[in-house]
Design a protein that fits this description.
The protein is α/β, with parallel strands linked by helices. The chain has four domains: 3-151, 3-Layer(aba) Sandwich (Rossmann fold); 170-284, 2-Layer Sandwich (Transcription Regulator spoIIAA); 285-402, Transcription Regulator spoIIAA; 409-466, Beta Barrel (OB fold (Dihydrolipoamide Acetyltransferase, E2P)), CATH 2.40.50. Helices cover 36% and strands 21% of the residues. The protein has helices spanning 3-21, 36-52, 75-86, 89-94, 110-119, 135-144, 193-197, 205-217, 243-251, 271-279, 296-301, 308-321, 340-353, 380-403, and strands at residues 27-32, 55-56, 65-70, 99-104, 125-127, 149-151, 175-179, 181-182, 201-202, 222-226, 258-262, 286-288, 326-333, 357-362, 409-417, 424-429, 434-438, 449-457, 461-466. The strands form five sheets. Strands 2-1-3-4-5-6 form a six-stranded parallel sheet, with helices on both faces. The protein has a five-stranded mixed beta barrel with strand order 15-16-17-19-18. A three-stranded parallel sheet has the order 7-10-11, sandwiched between helices. Bound molecules: S-adenosyl-L-homocysteine and iron/sulfur cluster.
Length: 467
């Protein structure tokens, strides 16, 4: 459905209510936690709010509307969001007209909704991940009815309609996230995502293509296609186009741009996809393939549907087809029942594959998931100790991989000033690696495409000079 069609009545109502309430344009402050999908949702929420009459502010203290878009994947992210919400209490006391909303994955869970309802009385409204496209209606209700609103419905009640042509506010004109599908059907036993994001829904290929074409025409250089398991793309559409079919169409578009995707589940990643990356014009030489554990026993308990051997074979194939590709992964340390032997198997996968980087997480118990009720939960001390060993190993491997790049000239997209030194640019290579190079008075801007010769390498950063 189209955004304007869906929200016809409420867009106009909300706009006139905003004009009536505020003498000048009200200010929106939005804070986003979690994954790229959440970032993409916040860009849509901001786009809709600007269309309704808000302007953006970077200062919470100036805001008339504060939105916190939350993540539920690990407890740490939830506690952080709640602590941010806690700090808004005094702002509301100083400025009672301030409206505070919390949205995203965390509030999609009944127990968190109840928590906020009872312990955070100054939060005015909540809305779940399946209500994002209803934002004009929700906001109108908040601005007109003097009560708190809890717009949270389970995915059984509201399957999360997909809406096209939504106004999007992108921070950068050079890089963009494009969702190709929503939700997840995999139910890995540790993961809350299928509960808070519902079942898989793919966007029509024509809609994705027209969004991508528009971005490229506007000068965008680096586009990341998003989905919890992009390899499932299209299964629910008429004629069942595959993810590779979609990539093929995108690759035909003319222009100077690269395409990335996140995330690919190893159980469904095909050799056809790997081959396509090699033959394409625009696919970035980067493959993020979360393995989670190197132990078959743990992979089975995680419900991942692949073995260590199948995973290693796939990585071998990827490296054979693309010797220069950057391979990255996600690991969970301390899944229930993980023994020292299981953990050693994870370390040996790191040694065998030699990933360029690893995103590692201590297992976090998520209410309602299967793993939450498994025996033998691992204590925090053991997780911490194992994580330390994993990080040390990976740091060495990343440094060794990066050292091999010294002397090469690579294509880089400028991101901005290096945080450590304003006289140095920070950029990203097509492989997704962070690179720093001195400005030497050369005027560049974020998103610009340059060539850099690599002079020195560390585990997380490489250093070079402009060519
Ligand atoms: N759909 C993606 C990942 C989504 S969540 C995929 O399947 O790869 C991103 C990462 O968070 C996961 O890959 C996993 O490593 C981590 N993660 C998810 N649930 C977790 C939990 N309960 N505890 C710790 N890490 C978790
Ligand atoms: Fe979570 Fe597994 Fe779905 Fe990824 S594939 S979102 S880890 S359930």
């Amino acid at each position: 459905m189209n955004y304007i069609e869906k929200n016809k009545e409420y867009i106009e109502l909300a706009k006139s209510r905003i004009k009536q309430l505020y003498n000048e344009k009200p200010k929106l402050f939005i804070e986003t936690a979690g994954c790229q999908q959440n970032e993409a949702d916040s860009e849509k929420l901001t786009g809709m709010a600007l269309d309704l009459g808000y302007i953006l502010t970077d200062e919470k203290e100036d805001a008339d509307l504060i939105l916190i878009n939350t993540c539920a994947v690990r407890e740490h992210a939830e506690l952080k969001a709640l602590s941010h919400a806690g700090r808004l209490k005094h702002l509301k006391e100083i400025k009672p007209s301030l409206i505070i909303g919390i949205c995203g994955c965390m509030v999609q869970q009944e127990h968190r909704k109840e928590d906020i309802k009872h312990k955070y009385p100054y939060v005015d409204f909540l809305f779940g991940t399946n209500m994002i496209f209803d934002f004009p209606r929700l906001l109108y209700k908040v601005l007109t009815e003097k009560k708190r609103h809890f717009f949270v419905e389970s995915y059984e009640e509201n399957h999360g309609e997909m809406v096209e042509d939504v106004p999007v506010f992108r921070k950068s004109t050079k890089t963009a996230w494009v969702s190709v599908m929503y939700g997840c059907n995999n139910f890995c036993t540790y993961c809350v995502v299928p509960y808070v994001r519902g079942r898989e829904r793919s966007r029509e290929m024509t809609c994705i293509l027209s969004e991508v074409k528009g971005l490229i025409e506007d000068g965008c250089r680096d586009i990341t296609l998003l989905g919890q398991n992009v390899n499932s793309y299209g299964k629910d559409l008429e004629n069942s186009p595959t993810f590779v079919d979609l990539l093929r169409e995108i690759d035909k578009i003319d222009g100077d741009f690269v395409i990335r995707f996140m995330t690919s589940h190893p159980k469904d990643a095909t050799k056809e996809l790997v081959d396509f990356i090699a033959e394409s014009k625009h696919m970035a030489p980067h493959f993020h393939l979360p393995v989670q554990s190197g132990s078959n026993r743990i992979l089975k308990a995680m419900n991942r549907h692949y073995t260590r051997e199948a995973y290693l074979e796939l990585c071998g194939y990827i490296k054979k087809v693309h010797p220069d590709i950057s391979l990255t992964t996600d690991i969970i340390v301390g899944f229930p029942g993980e023994t020292e032997e299981d953990f050693q198997e994870t370390l040996s996968v790191l040694e065998e594959v030699r990933f360029d980087s690893v995103f590692s997480f201590n297992y976090s118990l998520r209410k309602g998931t299967k793993a939450a009720s498994m025996d033998c939960q691992i204590d925090e001390e053991t997780k911490k100790e194992r994580m330390g060993r994993l990080l040390t190993l990976q740091q060495r491997i990343s440094a060794e991989n990066n050292a091999k790049l010294v002397g090469r000239t690579v294509s880089v997209t400028v991101e901005g000033d290096s945080k450590a030194d304003p006289n140095v640019w920070a950029g990203r290579t097509e492989q997704g690696k962070i690179i720093h190079f001195p400005k030497n008075g050369i005027p560049l801007e974020g998103g610009q495409h340059v060539f850099v010769e690599i002079e020195r390498a560390e585990s997380y950063t490489i250093y070079g000079k402009l060519k």
